[in-house]
Each structure stands twice: as C-alpha cells, then as structure tokens.
UniProtKB/TrEMBL annotation:
The keyword Ribosomal protein does not apply. It comes from the Bacteria. This is Cysteine desulfurase. InterPro entries: Aminotrans_V_dom, Cysteine_dSase, PyrdxlP-dep_Trfase, PyrdxlP-dep_Trfase_major, PyrdxlP-dep_Trfase_small. Pfam families: Aminotran_5. Residues 2-362 form the Aminotransferase class V domain. Keywords: Pyridoxal phosphate. One of its GO terms (molecular function) is catalytic activity. Its cofactor is pyridoxal 5'-phosphate.
C-alpha cells in the first residue's frame, strides 16, 4: 500500500516497538513502588524526561507530563489552567482552526461559564494577530493556538502570538504542536504548555506528552494516586515513555532533512496537480511540507478517498477525527474555500517513510482516478 495519511497516524519505528517490548520484559515494576526495582523504574522515568528536555534545550524550564495522547494533553492543559484561573480571569481565546481536542474542550468550558472568543483567520489560514491584540485583556485566562494545522498544514506565528499574549501577565499560552514535531522546528518561546502525540511521529498510539512551564498552574483533572506531580494520577507507562524517546530523537534530529525532502515532494505534487482542469490546491503556499490539501469541485471527498483506496493508496478527506462528520470543514470555510471545493477535498499527508516511488505511484494512480471522476468535475 502507498500510505499518504501520515497526519492521521504514522507507522511505529522498529526500535520503538523493540524498546517497548524489551522494557516491558525487563523493567515492569511500578515507578511508585518503594522497593529497589520501583526506585530503578522511577530513576529511568526521570532520565527519560531529562532526555526529552535536553532534545529541545529545555532543562530547568519545563516539566513533562506523560499522558495517553494529545487529546488528553489538550484537555489537561486547557481545563487545568482554566479551573486554576477561574476566580480572576474567565475568557479563553481560540480559533476555528483548532483540532476538536481543543475546540470541544473550550466549548465544554463555555457551558461552565467561561467566555470563548474566536480570533479571526486570514485567507492564508493564519490567526489574525491584529485581531488577537484587540481581543486581549486582563480577563483572558488562556490563549490557545496550534503550531501546524492538521487539515491544511499551514504554520502559525507562535512566537509573535506569545509576545502579544504575554503583555497580559495573567494569560496562559497553550500550543498544540502535534503536527509540527519532526516537520518544522518546534517553538517553545513564550509557550506555557505544549502538547504532542507519539503516534504522529512514529511512536505508539496512546502516548501523549504535555510540556508544562509551571506545573502549579494546572488544576488536576484526573485524580487518584498523585503520580506525575499530582496532575495525572495513574501508574505511569514506563516502557511506552522510554520508547517514545527513540521516536522523538529520530524526529527532532532529522527535522531539517525531512523538511527538505518533503518540501521537494510537496512542490512536485503541487506542480503535477495544478496541471489538471478542476483541481485546486487548498493548502497555502508556505505550509508545513507534509500536508497537501487539494479540492476537486463536483466530486465528494469520500468518493475520491474510496477511489484511491481501491488503487491501494491511502489518504483522507479532511482529518480522521472529523471525516465522519457530515458538516463542512470549519478550517476550509474559515479560509474562504468555495463550498463545492471543500466537499471535494482530500488530504495527502507524507511522513518519514514516504519515498519518491510513493509519489510517483500516487501520480500514476491520480490519472486513473481523475478519469473515473472527470465528468463530475465542475
Ligand atoms: N491535535 C492535532 C492537531 C491532531 O492532528 C491530533 C490527532 N488527529 C490531535 C490533537 C489528537 O491526538 P490524539 O488522537 O493522539 O489524541
């Protein structure tokens, strides 16, 4: 199969799988147990966190909380900070670009009395920084902004947004960097919390990370035995956490290289696709290189995904998390993509395992699918 759905999930690296199995066999003790094996497990847990922080030169600046995925990390950060700040700041600023694991959290907080404000989106899919400035006040508890969008791939001005947010000392800046790691350099400047998901960079599903600048800013949303600084109770998954370092090192240390390769594939695909009547590129020009969103007006995205799937090419409509929802995608709507083009959108997403041959095979099959749907195009 030609796998071009890496924004939905990636294939785990072999050394990640091997490490996971090996640590489960040799170091299965509970990191909270007081005996020798427990102490050893805890020591390894702390070393693992240090290795992750060292990768980004963050030692002394952030704590790391291991979670079950970015969905949990986003919930933990947004709810945790919101509850902590509720008494003195109750506004949350977000945008429709965010993943449901952010948007649905803030919408749920809205039902609990928080005021949600949406920052405008520019035509190239970035948050409007001038609008953000006008929304900021001393009542803002949280501003949340993703690093790279999961549907179109556009990157966001994280550092500039952080500078605006931090003119208001009470405001907390949260970043969902799930689609950024390994593809573009991560920005921690001015960031208070940052979420990652292991399976998006060749780690395992069910593995999340939350970087927290000040752990005391989080009210726990999961209660229990007090693990992970008391903010994420539950026995830590040491084998998983040790394994993720392998994937993270590979992703971070090869970001420049992969960015370059995927940019070449992306440019090649853009050039190829613009040669077809009725095919429009939805992703802005300077997006992250691994995601290319394309619209074929007149055909349904699902029909295209099925047609490619029959040719053994796996890609998706918008995102795996929203592809089953009937409504038009809010991200594409916010970027003024015409309705028919949104309905006929597909997302091609590449990763570290994507090869030139994959791109070539995709192109050969694109001709076939195009012929199959040609008469439907408007
Ligand atoms: N944020 C973004 C931008 C994502 O793409 C995803 C995964 N689709 C998530 C958060 C949630 O990650 P997970 O499903 O691993 O919890």
């Amino acid at each position: 199969m030609i796998y071009l759905d890496n924004a939905a999930t990636t294939k785990p690296n072999q050394d990640v799988l091997d490490t996971y199995v090996k640590v489960n066999q040799s170091l299965y003790s509970n990191a909270n147990s007081p005996h020798q094996a427990g102490l050893q497990a805890d020591q390894l847990l702390q070393q693992t966190k240090k290795q992750i922080k060292d990768l980004f030169n963050l030692d002394g600046k952030f704590d790391i909380v291991f979670t079950s995925g970015a969905t949990e990390s986003n919930n933990m950060a947004l709810k945790g900070v919101a509850y902590k700040k509720k008494a003195f700041a109750n506004e949350i600023i977000t945008s429709v670009l965010e993943h449901p694991s952010v948007l649905e959290v803030v919408r749920s907080l809205e039902t609990e009395g928080f005021i949600i404000k949406y920052v405008d989106v520019t035509e190239d899919g970035q948050i409007d920084l001038d609008h953000l400035k006008t929304l900021m006040s001393d009542d803002v508890a949280i501003v949340t902004c993703m690093h790279v969008n999961n549907i179109m791939g556009q990157t966001q001005p994280i550092e500039e947004a952080a500078n605006i947010v931090h003119q208001y000392p009470k405001a907390h800046f949260h970043v969902d960097a799930v689609q950024a790691i390994g593809k573009v350099p991560l920005c921690f400047e001015g960031v208070d919390t940052l979420s990652l998901s292991g399976h998006k960079f060749h780690g395992l599903k069910g593995q999340g990370i939350l970087f927290v600048r000040n752990i005391h800013q989080l009210e726990p949303i999961i209660h229990g035995g007090g693990q992970e600084y008391g903010v994420r109770s539950g026995t830590v998954n040491l084998p998983m956490n040790i394994a993720i370092v392998k994937a993270m090192k590979a992703a971070v240390n090869h970001t420049t290289e992969l960015n370059h390769t995927l940019n070449e594939f992306n440019a090649d695909l853009r050039q190829f696709l613009t040669g077809f009547h009725g095919v429009k590129l939805n992703s802005p020009q300077n997006s992250a290189p691994h995601i290319l969103n394309v619209g074929l007006s007149g055909v349904k995205g699902e029909v295209l995904v099925n047609a490619f799937s029959k040719h053994n090419i796996m890609l998706s409509t918008t995102s795996a998390c929203s592809s089953k929802k009937a409504s038009l995608n809010e991200v594409l709507l916010a970027m003024n993509v015409p309705r028919k083009q949104i309905e006929g959108s597909i997302r091609i997403s590449m990763g570290a395992n994507t090869t030139q041959e994959d791109i070539q095979t995709f192109k050969e099959n694109f001709y076939k699918v195009y012929e199959e749907v040609r008469e439907l195009l408007v």
